[in-house]
Each structure stands twice: as structure tokens, then as C-alpha cells.
Specification:
Blueprint (H helix, E strand, L loop, with lengths): L2 E4 L2 H6 L10 E6 H12 L8 H19 L1 H10 L10 E2 L4 E6 L5 H4 L4 H13 L3 E3 L2 H9 L6 E3 L3 H6 L4 H8 L2
Parallel strand pairs: 1-2, 2-4, 5-6
Antiparallel strand pairs: 3-4
Helix pairs in contact: 2-3
Length: 177
């Protein structure tokens, strides 16, 4: 069974090591973060500071968009969008990576402290009891300060999260003590 993580789609395009995990991974992605890919690819604002890195990441974003626009994948995503909080059937990238798209719905519960994408990420993690992967220190700090009961890993700790990370079962057991 693949290890599951909630993540923004752009993180997968930005961090190449996420595409070569040591074991099977299911990236759970709120649909709104897929829409954000189009803005990043087509916008004039750079995604990365270095022009060469920016061109590379925008190319990877284009490849990820093409993957999501594949007719079979697009059909799975469209079915998901009919019901709030529905998960798509797995979208297989390769033998180790699959994506599950979620029709996440923003909630005013966290809307004051978090932007809409952050809100959908944390609500998806809460709803499906999954850890989050993020590179945004401010987001991580806000989660901790707000005492939101969600497990978060910094993107730099990805391999630890995959290999030795704390499972949902471990968290349940620790609550008993």
C-alpha cells in the first residue's frame, strides 16, 4: 500500500526528488492546486529566482499539466468534481507514484488565518487523516501556532517521512498515553 501525503501540485513539479521516492507514494492533491499550475505556467511572474531553474520548473509544470489533461485522467478528475470531498480513482504516473485528486471545499473555519489553498490542504489532511508535505515555513508555523491537529513534514524530510515517518496508527497510540 502506498504511503499517502497531502501536497500542492506545484511542489511535485518543483522538487524533483519527490518523483523518485524509495517506495510507493500516493500524492493527495486538492483540485484547486492543479488550477494554480496553469497560472504559474502562463504567468509572467517567475516561479524560481534563477532563470534557468525557472525555465526548468515551468517545463515540469507543463508536463504535470499534460499528465492531468490526459483524457483518462481528466475523466477521473471530472467525476471527482461532482461531489465535495470526493477522491478520484488513482491517476498512475509510474509504478511508484500515483495521484489522488480531491474536490476539497474551502471552509470559513480556517479562512481567517490561512489562504484558500492552505485551507484546502489542511482540511484535506484532517478529513483523510493524512500527513502534509510543505516547503513553506510560514504555513508550518501557522499550523503549529493554531494547534491544528495535523501532521506536517518539511519537504526536505521527505525520505524520512516515506521510510520512517509517524503513521496514523502511531499517532492514535500516542494519544492513549
Amino acid at each position: 500500500m502506498p504511503r499517502r501525503f497531502v501536497i500542492e501540485a506545484v511542489m511535485v513539479a518543483t522538487y524533483g526528488h519527490l518523483l523518485v521516492p524509495s517506495s510507493a507514494i500516493d500524492y493527495v492533491v486538492p483540485y484547486s492546486s492543479i488550477l494554480e499550475l496553469y497560472d504559474m505556467r502562463d504567468g509572467s511572474d517567475p516561479v524560481m529566482e534563477d532563470p534557468d531553474d525557472d525555465a526548468h520548473v515551468k517545463n515540469k509544470i507543463g508536463e504535470l499539466i499534460a499528465f492531468f489533461e490526459d483524457p483518462l485522467n481528466r475523466k477521473k478528475i471530472e467525476r471527482t468534481m461532482q461531489v465535495p470531498w470526493r477522491e478520484s480513482s488513482p491517476l498512475l504516473l509510474n509504478e511508484r507514484i500515483q495521484f489522488t485528486i480531491v474536490h476539497a471545499v474551502d471552509s470559513a473555519q480556517y479562512g481567517e488565518a490561512f489562504d484558500p489553498i492552505e485551507t484546502e490542504l489542511l482540511l484535506t489532511a484532517l478529513k483523510f487523516n493524512l500527513p502534509l508535505l510543505s516547503d513553506q515555513f510560514e504555513f508550518q508555523d501557522k499550523l503549529i501556532q493554531a494547534e491544528i491537529p495535523v501532521q506536517i513534514y518539511d519537504i526536505e524530510d521527505f525520505e524520512f517521512a516515506v521510510e520512517e515517518g509517524i503513521s496514523a496508527t502511531d499517532l492514535e497510540l500516542s494519544k492513549d498515553f
